[in-house]
Design brief:
By secondary structure, the protein is an alpha/beta fold. Helices cover 44% and strands 15% of the residues. The protein folds into 2 domains: 113 residues, no CATH class; 274 residues, Rossmann fold (3-Layer(aba) Sandwich), CATH 3.40.50. The model has no long low-confidence stretch (mean pLDDT 90). Belongs to the CFA/CMAS family.
């Protein structure tokens, strides 16, 4: 009788219709596959049961989070080799139902059932987002729950991953060899220059995180800042930092939905890494709300991840792993869609800068920070949560590198009726 690893390899290749590019090590200690390749470690039969009960990415995600699946060796290389079977399947690839019409695939599934026995539903990892239906996404209540799921996992854990800058968005690199802290400072300064901040101006920072943008703008540019977040842990951390900087007279942090901000007009608005949480159905309202909060001539800097446009936009579906474990209810739109909606809301879009490669560098640094102190990272949150963050950041780095997703800074103006935008004549000479 074949060992477990050989049986798994045969089953996988029958289902995938291709040679498996990684090695497999099974719970019985057996191992097989291409020499020198990363090793996919199947620690428990339970991993197979997870795949049978939830075929596809969600079953794989649950096995990974629970520790039933692991990778030994270069995680990036393993993900790169497996990408075509998980994230980059051809549009015309057969569905599971279509695959099951093939007698070889049906035989493989029967073999998997025998190997996975007993066929009982495994418990869902505790880190998975619990939902009570999906009919009311992007209400104030559902958004608050989603934000808490992602951001309230421990400030100490985020300190380990993000480093001293505590900025959770794409940095701006002069060189890949630079420091993460310098690159994040340069990103904050770039935003401030694009907004043409000057002493005495009022800035609204939507989705202010741990206060880094608000602190930089107040300290370096003399503006007064209101930062809003739905995360109480972020707000508490930001307020402490602001007090230590002696900026409490210039920076206010609120636990508040951006839809409830009523004390405009502001001279400028920054929204950095927040708009991904808004949702397609709410995006025009989001843009209109920010337009209303700006004074005529005021600038908006919208920093947002984008997906590549699809031939059939109705075919877009949310990544199951990301939706269940990382960014519940998060949605990505093509940059053209975002620009169009900002314009429909009344903005004049003046500049779009793609910084896709910068996010890949940033994510690799965050992964390195986590891996450098892996035992502590697990203690600060949970082993499952640490595994989630390591996988999603590494996979995201590859997605940016392979141009599956991008990130853009969009500078827009609430141009007055007389057309005086206040923008410089030369596009990227951001100062007046």
């Amino acid at each position: 009788m074949q060992d477990a690893a050989s049986r798994l390899k045969n089953i996988a290749e029958q289902v995938l219709g291709a040679r498996l590019p990684v090695r497999i090590r099974a719970w019985d200690g057996s191992e097989t596959g291409p020499p020198g390749a990363p090793v996919l470690v199947v620690r428990h039969r339970r991993a197979l049961r997870r795949l049978l009960w939830k075929p596809g990415e969600l079953g794989l995600a649950r096995a990974w989070v629970a520790g039933d699946l692991d990778v030994e060796g270069d995680l990036y290389r393993a993900l790169d080799l497996l990408a075509e079977f998980i994230w980059e399947r051809d549009d015309d690839a057969p569905t599971l139902a279509e695959s099951l019409r093939d007698p070889k695939v049906r035989a493989a599934v029967r073999s998997l059932l025998a190997l996975a026995a007993p066929f009982l539903p495994p418990p869902v990892p505790g880190e998975e987002m619990r939902r009570h239906g999906r009919l009311h996404r992007h209400t104030k209540g559902s958004d608050k729950q989603a934000i808490s799921h992602h951001y309230d996992v421990g400030n100490d854990f985020y300190e380990l991953v993000l480093g001293p800058s505590m900025v959770y968005s794409c940095a701006y690199w002069e060189s890949p060899d630079g420091t993460l802290e310098d690159a994040q400072r340069d990103k904050l300064e770039l935003i401030c220059r694009k907004l043409a901040l000057k002493p005495g101006m009022r800035l609204l920072d939507v989705g202010c995180g741990w206060g880094s943008m608000a602190i930089h703008a107040a300290r370096e540019h003399g503006v007064r800042v209101v930062g809003v977040t739905l995360s109480r842990e972020q707000a508490a951390y930001a307020r402490k930092r602001i007090a230590e900087e002696g900026l409490t007279d210039r920076v206010e942090i609120r636990v508040q939905d951006y839809r409830d901000v009523r004390d405009g007009p502001y001279d400028a608005i920054s929204s950095v890494g927040m708009a991904e949480h808004v949702g397609a159905d709410r995006y025009l309202d989001y843009a209109r709300d920010l337009h209303t909060l700006l004074k005529p001539g005021g600038r908006l800097l919208n920093h947002q991840i984008a997906r590549r446009p699809l031939g059939d936009e109705t075919a877009y579906s949310v990544d199951e792993f990301i939706d269940a474990y990382v960014f519940p209810d998060g949605e990505l739109a093509p940059i053209g869609t975002t620009v169009g909606l900002l314009e429909r809301a009344g903005f004049e879009v003046r500049d779009v800068e793609s910084i896709r490669e910068h996010y890949a560098h940033t994510l690799r640094r965050w992964v390195a920070n986590l891996e450098a102190d892996w035992p502590r990272g697990q203690r600060l949150t949970s082993p499952g949560r640490a595994r989630i963050w390591r996988l999603y950041m590494a996979a995201s780095a590859l997605a940016f590198e392979r141009n599956r997703i991008g990130v853009n800074q969009v500078l827009a103006v609430r141009t007055p009726e007389d057309g005086t935008s206040g923008m410089p004549l030369r596009t990227r000479d951001w100062r007046n």
